[in-house]
Structure formats: structure tokens, C-alpha cells
Design a protein that fits this description.
Blueprint: H1 13-25, H2 29-39, H3 42-45, H4 51-80, H5 84-101, E1 109-110, H6 113-129, H7 147-153, H8 171-195, H9 207-230, H10 242-252, H11 259-281, H12 292-307, H13 309-313, H14 333-364, H15 371-386, E2 394-395, H16 397-405, H17 412-428, H18 437-447, H19 449-452, H20 458-464, H21 466-481, H22 484-504, E3 508-514, E4 520-522, E5 529-530, E6 534-540, H23 549-560, H24 564-583, H25 598-602, E7 609-615, H26 624-638, E8 643-647, H27 651-659, E9 674-675, H28 678-687
Parallel strand pairs: 6-7, 7-8, 8-9
Antiparallel strand pairs: 1-2, 3-4, 3-5, 3-6
Length: about 700
């Protein structure tokens, strides 16, 4: 039987487009209000804020995150190749803007190690191209930590005339100029992706690609911090193979290690790791995480200051961190052109991490987010702060987990965290003058524990899916050994190639009948299946398209033990020889048989079936090549008096077959060629003469 298809109502796309344009271009007070409330979600949820229920959890989580943010911001400035003050600016503005525009109640948006690394690599490259020495570590200026003193101390002797930058601009000025231009472009990309609804791009970043990218980048971050751990001065490697070159330079200069920095690093790592392990083990008993990083920074700063570690042991310190805000400045347009390509992967990675974390915690706490609005939020978290000497931001998993564990209910906690950072910016920043850089490196390295632990998951990942494990290994290796951007691109391309290869060579099988049922399964996978006499049932577990057409035919011929083209050619050759013998008047055939016996030779012994049933349940679509392939086997097997029956086709496959003329012009033979179950096709084949 044939099921009757519903008639589709023809859609006038022109009228729909005109209606949408009218609706979009119209402006009413209600529509303007809805637009503002959608663009600034805080206007929707803040009036409904349950103060008595939420306020203490938000204050506690905000204070804890603020305390964590300060040492992390100062530490991650090493990754970005910028001064600590710019990291503090970034943390402050990102929290405020996401409070206004974000739809997630729990994610912590701000400075993130992977994003800082990607920014730092671009900054280092442009500084080298501009003629600056990346190892030009001037001695820290002594002073009151004001902005004026800091600017004077960081002005170098280089005269810049490139990219339209003022000739008086020194190394620090040029570095933050590159970072803000890069951040602005990344934000523009994210906003454009939101306008054109290109959030689907994130679907091409699978979990294996993201995990591999994060682990590979973590190895790069770890490598970049080793020189601060042991206090040696080596050239900052740039370009491909940075990880290998850096380790070679480390071992060449290991004899120059600063003993003071080595001892300090060892003590800090032991303290930080021990505190983290204790916190993880007893986290269900602790009301809030231990502020270990802050304690380590305070104690290390006091020891460095009163022990005069910089003067006596030449230990590298952070130097003067200014207070207050630098006047805003528009990012340089010429620099934007230089970093436009670098901003694209930065924008995608920043958006993907933010949206994936937002969706994860929204699902956990039973509310919804708007992915498109998240793209706008993270975009403006980059665009607006770029005018205030900040660099790119993203959501961070570690801080988000801390946020939720300390009672966070809404993004009010982000405002509290911003206030803590503001307090440091206005009053406390100069107190970190004597903080050793090796302490900051320890904080960065210990924060990578989660990403580096992914190596322990490789055996379990391999047991679950070998292809995903291979994608993880390739992405991780490319990110670590080549570069982070190339690693991300390699991971995306390789994962897509794996999908293509899997559809090019999918599983194929001949099916047998489960005894006393109307169901059929793979004869090689299951025991006690019975073969259907005179019928072959073939399953192809992938879409049928141009890339796997040949594999489809080869598998079909191999499993059925019959190539219809070769058989047809053999028969033609045999018939030709028979005609030649008959013309000569020889009543014996070429095989020495009588004429009456020749018909037996036309049907070889291996053809033990009269019907071929193709199980199309796993064929999700057909392209033109796929339709032509099915038409080809229909014709070839028909020449051998073998009927081809299709079973379990979905509507899109049926439509493709109709358009391709598989069922003929008037579809008259359709009910004899198409069946809605394998069993129906088998019963029909058995009834055939």
C-alpha cells in the first residue's frame, strides 16, 4: 500500500520577505520598548529581583570572585604581554557590561588564560615587526605608582613611524594599541555574527576539538611561564614551533637560573596545589573556596618588599602599577587592518566558550538563555572596553564554578566583583610593586590543572570513541607544536574530514530475518538469523551521495556475490560465441553441450536470488549522483531478471527519487518498487513468479 502524502501549501517567499521587512522597519513605542528590554536583559529581571532571597548569595559570590580576579588579572597580564593595570581594566569593564547585556545568571565573564595567550601572541609578533626587543625588561621604576610616572618609565628609545602611531609611543604604548585594536575587531566580528545570526559556526567546534585546543594551549601557557619560574632571561619565541624552541632555550640557559626565584616558585606551587587539593576534597564542607591565590600574593609581596629580593637577589618583580583610569582612546584604524585576520579565531573561541558555558549552567539551573544575545553581550564586552585600554574577554569555567558554589543567583554578583577590582584600581594597586613575577607564573600554572588533567581521560575517551580521541590528539598536538590559531583550524578541518571519511566508507550489511518475527538485522552481528530464500536484503548506513557512490556499488556487489555488469558482459560474450557456432552448423556449443542445454549456462550458479531489497532506513538523503546510482542498479539487475525493491525510505529520499524519475513518468510502478517496511518488501518478493 502507499500512504497518501499531505499536499504542501505553496509559500510565497516574496510576500513573507516583504512582511518581515515591514515588521522590522516599523517603529512603535511598544516595539522600541521590547527592543531595549531584549538588548538589555537587565531591564527585565532586575525589577523582579528577590532581594531577601538572592542578595546574600550574590554578595558572597561577588566578593569571592573579586578576590580571585585580582591576582589572576595581574598574573594573566604576563600571558598577554601587557602591564597588570590593563588586565584589571579588562576585569572591571567586562563584569559591568555583561551585567547589563548577558542572559546567563551564573557565568563569570572576564580575563581568561586562553584568550590572554592568543592576544599575547599577536602583541609579541607585532612588537617584533615594529623593531622592539621583546626582552627589553627595563628595571621597574620607583615612585608613587601614578600614571605619569608609569608612562615616563615605559617610554623607550624607539622611534615609530609605522601604522600611523605617534613617534613618541614606546613599547608599552604600542603593545596596548595592538591589543585594543585586536579586541575591537574581535568584538565587531561577534556583533556582526549576532546580526546575521551566524551562531551556527560554533557547531563546527566539537567537544573533542575544544578540549584538544584547550589542552594544547595550556601546554603553550605552561611553557611560556617556565622562564619566570626559574628566573632566566631567554628570547620570547614567536611563530610556529614556539613550544619546542622555548624548551631548547630553557635548557641552554638553565645554568643562569635565579636561586631565589626557584625557591619561591617551589614553595608557592606546593602551597597552591595543596590548598587546591584540600579545597576539592572538602568542598562540600566549605561554604566558600579558600582565597589561596590572594593569601600567596599578599605574603609573597610582603616577603619580597621587606627582604628586598629585587635589589639583593635580582628577582624580577611586577613594578609600579598605576592607580586610576587612563583617559579613553579610540583604537587605531591602521592597527585594526594589521590584526583583522587574527581577530577572527579570537572572536570565535571567545564566543564559543561563553555560549557553551552559558548553556551548560542554564540547563543545570533550569532557565533559558538566548545564544544570539550572548553573542551581542560578549561582542560589546570587547568593543566598549577596547576604548578604555582593555583586551579580549570570555567566560571562564573555573571562576563560574566558584561563582555557583558560593551561592550566586544573578549577575548582581558580577557588579560586586567589579567593585572589588575598582577598589584595587583606585587605591591598592601600588601595593603590588614588589610582587615577584615567579609568583604570578605559579598562579597561572596551577590554574591549568583542569586542562592538563585531560591527559588522564585519554584512555576512557579512547574506549568511548576512537575517532573523537584521534581528533583530540591531532588538535592538541597542532595547538601545542604549531600555534594556537593553526591548531584550532587543524582541529576543525580534521574533525570534518573524519565525518566525510565515515560517510564515504560506512557500515554495510546483508540482513537476515529474526526467527518468527517481521524484523531483520545484520547477519554478521547476530546469531540465529534465518536467510530469506531467493531474496537478498542490503543495508547501507549513510547518505548516498557522490563521494560514496563507488563504495556503495562495490559493497553491494561484494556482499551479494554478483556484479551485474560483469555478468551481462559474460552473457553477451557467450551468446556471441553461440551464434558463431550455429552459423557453422555445429549443434554443439562451445562447451560441448547441446543447444537445449545452453540456457542453463546463461544463469550462473552464484545467482541464488531473484529480488534485491535495499534497506534505506539509514539513508538520510540522496543527491543527483545517489539517485542515478539507484537507477543504474535498477536497470542492471532488471537485465538479469532480478527485481530491486526499496524499503523504509524517508520522505526526502522519496521526493528525490520522484524528481529523478526513478519510478517512471506517471509513478505507476511506484507501489511495486517502494515499501514502508523490509518485511512488506520481502513478502512481495516471495509472491513474485
Amino acid at each position: 500500500f502507499l500512504m497518501e502524502r499531505k499536499t504542501r501549501v505553496k509559500i510565497n517567499r516574496k510576500e513573507i520577505m516583504v512582511a518581515k521587512l515591514r515588521k522590522t522597519c516599523s517603529c512603535t513605542p511598544q516595539k522600541l520598548k521590547n527592543f531595549l528590554m531584549d538588548f538589555f536583559p537587565v531591564l527585565r529581571w532586575l525589577p523582579k529581583y528577590r532581594c531577601k532571597e538572592y542578595i546574600w548569595g550574590d554578595i558572597m559570590s561577588g566578593l569571592v570572585i573579586g578576590i580571585i580576579l585580582v591576582p589572576q588579572a595581574i598574573a594573566y597580564s604576563l600571558l598577554a604581554g601587557l602591564k597588570p593595570i590593563y588586565s584589571l581594566y579588562t576585569s572591571f569593564f567586562a563584569n559591568i557590561i555583561y551585567f547589563l547585556m548577558g542572559t546567563s545568571r551564573h557565568v563569570s565573564v572576564g580575563i581568561f588564560s586562553l584568550i590572554s595567550l592568543m592576544v599575547g601572541q599577536v602583541v609579541d609578533r607585532e612588537l617584533l615587526l615594529a623593531g622592539f626587543d621583546l626582552n627589553d625588561d627595563a628595571p621597574p621604576a620607583s615612585g608613587d605608582g601614578s600614571l605619569q610616572n608609569d608612562n615616563l618609565s615605559n617610554t623607550t628609545a624607539f622611534n615609530l613611524t609605522i601604522a600611523g602611531i605617534n613617534a613618541e609611543c614606546g613599547k608599552e604604548c604600542y603593545a596596548i594599541g595592538i591589543a585594543t585594536a585586536l579586541t575591537f575587531m574581535a568584538g565587531v566580528y561577534q556583533v556582526l555574527m549576532g546580526i546575521f545570526r551566524l551562531g551556527f559556526v560554533s557547531m563546527y567546534l566539537s567537544e573533542s576539538v575544544l578540549d584538544g585546543f584547550a589542552t594544547g594551549a595550556s601546554l603553550t601557557i605552561l611553557t611560556a611561564q617556565v622562564k619566570y619560574l626559574i628566573g632566566i632571561k631567554i628570547p620570547r619565541s614567536q611563530g610556529h614551533g614556539m613550544l619546542v624552541i622555548t624548551w631548547i632555550n630553557i635548557f641552554r640557559n638553565i645554568s643562569q637560573a635565579n636561586l631565589c626565584d626557584v625557591i619561591t616558585s617551589a614553595i608557592c606551587i606546593v602551597v597552591l596545589v595543596t590548598a587546591k587539593e584540600i579545597g576539592d576534597r572538602y568542598k562540600h564542607k566549605l561554604k566558600f573556596p579558600l582565597p589561596t591565590e590572594l593569601v600567596v600574593i599578599v605574603v609573597a609581596t610582603l616577603v619580597s618588599h621587606y627582604g628586598k629580593l629585587n635589589e639583593v637577589y635580582a628577582s624580577s618583580v611586577s613594578g609600579a602599577i598605576p592607580t586610576g583610569f587612563i583617559p579613553p582612546k579610540v583604537p587605531e584604524f591602521n592597527l585594526m587592518l594589521r590584526v583583522a585576520l587574527d581577530a577572527l579565531p579570537l572572536a570565535i573561541v571567545s564566543f564559543v566558550f561563553t555560549v557553551s558555558l552559558s548553556e551548560m549552567f542554564a540547563k543545570k539551573y533550569a532557565y533559558t538563555i538566548r545564544a544570539n544575545q550572548e553573542m551581542f553581550a560578549v561582542g560589546f564586552c570587547n568593543i566598549i572596553p577596547s576604548f578604555f585600554h582593555s583586551f579580549a574577554t570570555s567566560a571562564a569555567l573555573a571562576k563560574t564554578l566558584v561563582k555557583t558554589s558560593t551561592g550566586c543567583q544573578t549577575q548582581i554578583s558580577g557588579v560586586i566583583s567589579a567593585m572589588v577590582v575598582l577598589l584595587v584600581l583606585l587605591f591598592l594597586a601600588p601595593l603590588f610593586y614588589s610582587l615577584q613575577k615567579c609568583v604570578l607564573a605559579c598562579i597561572i600554572i596551577v590554574s591549568l590543572r583542569g586542562a592538563l588533567r585531560k591527559f588522564r581521560d585519554v584512555p576512557a575517551r579512547y574506549c568511548v570513541n576512537k575517532v573523537d580521541t584521534l581528533v583530540w590528539v591531532v588538535t592538541m598536538s597542532a595547538s601545542a607544536l604549531v600555534s594556537t590559531e593553526i591548531g584550532l583550524l587543524v582541529g576543525i578541518v580534521f574533525s570534518m574530514l573524519c565525518i566525510i571519511v565515515r560517510t564515504q566508507r560506512p557500515r554495510t550489511a546483508l540482513l537476515g530475518q529474526i526467527q518468527d518475527t517481521s524484523f531483520y538485522e545484520d547477519d554478521l552481528e547476530y546469531e540465529n538469523l534465518s536467510t530469506v530464500p531467493k531474496v537478498k536484503i542490503f543495508r547501507f548506513e549513510a547518505p548516498l551521495y557522490y563521494a560514496n557512490r563507488n563504495y556503495f556499488l562495490k559493497s553491494l556487489y561484494r556482499l551479494t556475490n554478483l556484479d551485474p555488469n560483469l555478468e551481462a558482459a559474460r552473457r553477451k560474450k557467450y551468446e556471441k560465441k553461440e551464434k558463431q557456432h550455429l552459423k557453422k552448423g555445429n549443434h554443439k556449443t562451445a562447451n560441448g553441450l547441446g543447444i537445449g542445454e545452453t540456457t542453463l549456462q546463461l544463469v550462473p550458479k552464484q545467482i541464488d536470488f531473484q529480488a534485491l531489497v535495499v534497506d534505506c532506513s539509514s539513508i538520510s538523503f540522496l543527491d543527483t549522483t545517489g539517485v542515478n546510482t539507484l537507477k543504474e542498479i535498477l536497470k542492471d539487475y532488471k537485465n538479469l531478471n532480478i527485481s530491486v525493491l526499496l524499503a523504509c525510505c524517508n520522505p526526502s529520499v522519496i521526493d528525490s527519487l520522484k524528481r529523478g524519475g526513478y519510478f517512471g513518468k506517471d509513478f505507476g510502478c511506484m507501489q511495486e518498487m517502494l515499501f514502508y517496511s523490509i518485511h512488506n518488501a520481502v513478502l512481495f518478493a516471495k509472491d513474485q513468479k
